[in-house]
Design goal:
seven-stranded mixed beta sheet, globular, two-stranded antiparallel sheet, Rossmann fold, alpha/beta, 237 residues
């Protein structure tokens, strides 16, 4: 059995990360370091023959720029290809489709999108004080709720498992908060766990798509559901 292989990847360092911004649905470009991180990841994947058959990416700039640099590294170029990505790209195994998906965007921070914490404190001091002093969830105007973020992640996981088959090899480039939710959905957790995910860190899952919905004992067969790499970033060493 050749499994369905999934590679979940966080974007490289963005200028917003350096500036301490709550980027959310706002997006800044990659820093020079971020470009180097993504280029190194693409080079490592090429050396390990991790050729994708399908690529999914968040449409936010820090994610598409990551994919552009990854593809440059994967194809042996020294500079990233244009961030305006084509619908498909020729790689070693043939033409590979690229889909930019809204459900892979970072969690929406509402009125805080793109702000530093100091800027957020100037526009909503009481709300910021509550968020700093209370761990219970509190709504941010125009932002997604945690439950909405989880449902969006589940929608994407359902798409993966509905559209792909054993033998497919899928790259997914997304964001820290949304990746936490996707991991919870893939692993059947009823809550996401706090997890520090470094820039261009990756998670590799192998699973038997044909038996995914089997309610019987195969659900407990660890040969069918394997985590090959978890929060892995040895390409940055």
């Amino acid at each position: 059995m050749v499994p369905l292989k999934l590679l979940l990847i966080r974007h490289g360092q963005s200028q917003g990360n350096v500036d301490g911004r709550l980027e959310g649905w706002h997006s800044t470009p990659l820093t020079t370091l971020g470009q180097q991180q993504a280029l190194a990841l693409g080079q490592r994947l090429a050396k390990t023959d991790w050729d994708p058959t399908h690529i999914y990416c968040s449409p936010l700039l820090r994610a598409t720029a990551t994919l552009a640099s990854m593809l440059a590294g994967f194809t042996g170029q020294s500079q990233a290809m244009p961030v305006s990505l084509p619908n498909r790209i020729p790689l070693r195994q043939g033409f590979v489709p690229i889909q930019l998906r809204e459900d892979l965007k970072e969690l929406n921070q509402g009125i805080f999108n793109g702000l530093t914490w100091a800027e957020a404190q100037t526009i909503a001091p009481d709300l910021c004080h509550h968020l700093e002093t209370n761990l219970d969830w509190h709504p941010i105007p125009q932002a997604e709720t945690p439950a909405q973020g989880y449902r969006r992640a589940q929608h994407f996981v359902d798409h993966l498992l509905g559209q792909h088959r054993n033998g497919d090899r899928v790259w997914v480039i997304s964001h820290h908060g949304l990746l936490q939710q996707i991991l919870a959905c893939l692993m059947g957790c009823d809550r996401p766990w706090g997890l520090a995910i470094g820039h261009t860190a990756l998670f590799e899952f192998w699973l038997d798509r044909d038996r995914w919905h089997d309610p019987g004992p195969n659900r407990f067969n660890t040969a069918l559901w394997q985590i090959k790499r978890w929060n892995h970033s040895d390409h940055l060493a």
